[in-house]
């Protein structure tokens, strides 16, 4: 998998000094995706539109809004405002490298963001060939992004755990095979040592009995001593 890189710029209240952001894993400007466009920015805009429609339907039906719903309506309207000072630009990795196309899609999905803010984002982009600016509105947007990031990290952790288990299984298998072969070599070594001792015993008995040892037997004796020393 391709690791993500993300950099944010500015802060809540304007575009100031550069700071680190929480990047996405996605391609095509999407958070956590692999290819294609949309992702985090697209899903956020869809949720905003759905929430706005729900609040509008409640008002049209004459239902009074609760304080929480009033707050939500103000928050939604503020997020669509071009002068929203609680907007932050972060960057997602575009795996196919087509940042220009994805940037056009992202602009179309976020019409409330002025063009000069996109230009500012691209100007401060640490890697314009791979990173796509993604607008995040307010603390709720950051929280949503962190939740998506956490879910993706959880998937990676599970994958790494599965790989670790497989590696342990392979290591145990090879370790068991190696121990089996080592034990077999030990047994074979003991058997050869016993056979060598028997031959040396017979040669020594003949020598003690005063029987002459001819040339081949003497050579065999010398070889046996060398073999014993190696064993």
UniProtKB/TrEMBL annotation:
GO terms for cellular component: nuclear pore central transport channel. Keywords: Coiled coil, Nucleus, Transport. It is found in: Nucleus. The keyword Transmembrane helix does not apply. It comes from the Eukaryota. Residues 35-60 are annotated as: Disordered. Residues 146-173 form a coiled coil. Residues 42-60 have a biased composition (Low complexity). This is Nucleoporin Nup54 alpha-helical domain-containing protein. Pfam families: Nup54. One of its GO terms (molecular function) is structural constituent of nuclear pore. One of its GO terms (biological process) is nuclear pore organization. It comes from Eutreptiella gymnastica. InterPro entries: Nup54/Nup57/Nup44, Nup54_alpha-helical_dom. Signal peptide: none annotated. Residues 111-231 form the Nucleoporin Nup54 alpha-helical domain. Its main location: nucleus.
